[in-house]
Design goal:
661 residues, 6-stranded parallel beta sheet, 7-stranded mixed beta sheet
Length: 661
């Protein structure tokens, strides 16, 4: 079939197709250029190394394309495979489009280092990703709608199965959209949550509400560009406000006279921020994509929406931007487990068996992978394809699960940390080095002042999830206790966890023996909570670390508490006399690169016992003046110069105490 007839068939059927070129990098590029020359279209390249003369976008910026309609595209995976970008890009391609995928030579691909692994593997250099690639290859080979052309072989386009002609949208609402729009137009109050995969017209539906509603609407979204389809309606009743600006207005009580708040891609906004914003409006429409490159719908419904006092569950199922016979969407969905599969549950009572999972089991038992990943997406609605890649191929991972009859009831995922040399750990403490990975171990060294934590061998809990029907049966506790025993047998020093602090979560970890050892001074953008770290000691060294870190947190909290909007159940130490740890901390701030935030409690204690003027330090730590005011008063050039002054004054303290240099 000629290229023209192929294109006519794609447009008549309303489908998109995937064409794969596999071979040497230059050969793949030439094939894509030759093929694209036969069909008029956008032919946007998603590539970090595009050929001259083509329109391109780097994979890291794929999210900026969401909301656009692109006709034909080339995805360059010759050097690395960014699957989030692949998913987002495929969602922008309109009916009749070709997606050309460029990959390394077929039989070498699984053993080829993947540059994208630098984003998620915590390794200093790219690593091969054999399990994900073998799984990807098998999906490509099993799909009869996909054409694979390997170097040295002729290009033969696989025929499409018979399907009815597609009727493209005519601008009028579909029956699904009409039914939901009628409900929204009659809404008196409440929160309405609209979830749908890409291409179902959820943003179009929100735009219809804006257009037809007789009163005032406000629109917010993580990025204004993603809400463009809503804002493009010919109406003056809707205005966009960024989430942080809207939150500020809500807190000031300055939001009045607004009938509807529409929040596009709500799953990408921190839950605490969402809760606060929603409470200020009589009617709220939340839209979110159920595909995991922006936040997953099922987890959003289970975790966030279930906490709302009143909400209405709305769904759009039928595709609008392409036909139900499309071949690209089901391939991407199956590959990246976008269906958010939750294990089927029978009797939700009884003892669950706990068992280990080895990385090779994911390919040998595909259902186990689907069930495990499904539990993660149901419990953590920010689970993304990045997690799937890490789960399959990142080194240093430990997995275990629990099962009742044939139902997976719990999932636990841990990451090895620590084992740094004493010299490197000291460099981390000093603020001069920050190697990849080791989230808790490095944080305890770099921020809490315990370089030994990065030398010790530990395991961090990355994710833990329990089937919704099996909760409150002690499954999480049993999973953790099993891992505790195994980690002790392996000679590890402690288990750790980092979590967004809430009273409930803190109590959960405390019940399983974890001890709170560090609190951040800033809220995380993803959770809207302060990051907390806790450890479960396993060895004598781990126990000493836990004791010292808990003591230090209790000792520091009187100085840290004013910096955060949080009350902790800590036994605040009354002692304000500087100790050896304080003098080490001051040395790190004065002569290395430790941040003021980490040294703040030690500096505050020392200032109480020093007769030196220390103008800059006292202005900030004792008088509560802002950085801007201090910079102006001392006639400094800016914050960087002020930090230098703080370090100089700390050197004066150490010199007076006989510890300078």
């Amino acid at each position: 079939m000629s290229a023209t007839l192929l294109q006519q068939q794609l447009q008549r059927l309303g489908v998109r197709r995937l064409l794969v070129f596999s071979g040497a990098t230059q050969w793949c590029e030439q094939q894509a250029i030759l093929f694209s020359a036969h069909s008029v279209g956008d032919w946007l390249w998603l590539s970090d190394s595009p050929p001259d003369g083509v329109t391109s976008c780097p994979p890291s910026a794929a999210h900026t394309l969401l909301g656009q309609d692109i006709f034909h595209g080339v995805f360059d995976a010759r050097y690395g495979l960014n699957v989030e970008a692949l998913a987002a890009f495929s969602g922008t391609l309109k009916a009749g489009s070709w997606l050309i995928l460029l990959i390394p030579e077929w039989h070498c691909w699984a053993d080829t280092p993947d540059a994208d692994s630098l984003r998620w593997s915590e390794q200093p250099r790219p690593i091969p990703t054999p399990r994900f690639i073998r799984r990807f290859r098998s999906f490509l080979e099993q799909d009869s709608g996909i054409t694979i052309c390997r170097q040295g072989q002729p290009l033969t386009i696989a025929p499409l199965p018979a399907a009815p002609d597609w009727l493209p949208p005519d601008g009028q609402p579909t029956s699904e959209q009409s039914q939901i729009l009628k409900q929204l137009m009659q809404a008196g109050s409440g929160v309405w949550v609209l979830t749908a995969p890409r291409g179902r017209g959820k943003s179009t539906l929100a735009g219809m509400l804006v257009k037809h509603w007789p009163g005032t609407c406000r629109v917010t979204a993580p990025a204004k560009a993603s809400a463009s389809q809503i804002l493009n309606q010919q109406t003056d009743s809707a205005r966009f406000i960024a989430p942080d600006a809207l939150l500020a207005l809500c807190r000031e009580g300055a939001v009045t006279g607004v009938d509807w708040l529409i929040i596009d891609e709500a799953a990408a906004i921190p839950a605490p921020m969402l809760s606060e914003i929603i409470a200020a409006f009589p009617r709220v429409l939340l839209t979110t994509t159920v595909q995991g490159y922006e936040g997953t719908g099922r987890g959003f419904l289970l975790k966030f929406c279930a906490s709302l006092p009143q909400w209405h569950d709305l769904r759009l199922n039928a595709p609008i931007r392409w036909s139900s016979s499309d071949t690209l969407e089901p391939f991407i969905s199956d590959l990246l487990l976008f269906d958010e599969h939750l294990p089927v549950a029978g009797e939700a009572r009884g003892t669950s068996e706990i068992f280990p999972i080895h990385a090779d089991d994911w390919l040998n038992e595909p259902v186990l992978l689907e069930d495990f990943y499904g539990l993660l997406t149901s419990a953590h609605y920010r689970t993304s394809p990045l997690d799937l890649r890490r789960l399959l191929d990142a080194p240093g991972m430990t997995f275990s699960a629990s099962r009742h009859n044939n139902t997976l009831t719990g999932a636990l995922w841990l990451v090895d940390e620590g084992g740094l040399s004493a010299a490197l750990a000291q460099e981390v403490w000093a603020g001069r080095r920050r190697p990849r990975g080791n989230l808790v171990a490095q944080s305890l060294a770099a921020h809490a002042g315990f370089p030994e934590a990065a030398v010790m061998r530990s395991r961090r809990i990355s994710r833990i999830a329990v089937h919704p029907l099996f909760r409150r049966q002690g499954i999480a506790r049993h999973l953790l206790l099993t891992q505790k025993r195994q980690a002790q047998q392996a000679g590890l020093d402690f288990l750790s966890v980092s979590f967004g602090y809430t009273t409930e979560l803190a109590a959960l970890w405390q019940q399983t023996g974890f001890r709170l050892v560090r609190m951040s001074m800033h809220k995380e953008a993803s959770s809207g909570c302060y990051a907390a770290m806790a450890i479960l000691p396993l060895s004598a060294a781990g126990q000493a670390l836990a004791d010292n870190a808990v003591h230090q947190l209790q000792r520091d909290w009187r100085w840290l508490a004013p910096q955060v909007d949080l009350t902790l159940p800590l036994n605040i130490a009354a002692d304000t006399q500087p100790d050896d740890a304080d003098w080490r901390e001051l040395s790190g701030f004065a002569f290395a690169h430790r941040p003021l935030e980490s040294s703040l409690p030690a500096l505050s204690r020392v200032l109480l016992h020093s007769d030196l003027p220390l103008t800059a330090l006292r202005a900030y730590l004792q008088q509560g003046k802002s950085v801007a005011d201090i910079v102006q008063h001392l006639r400094l050039s800016g914050r960087k110069a002020l930090v230098s002054r703080w370090r100089e004054e700390t050197q004066q303290i150490l010199k007076e105490a006989g510890m300078g240099g």
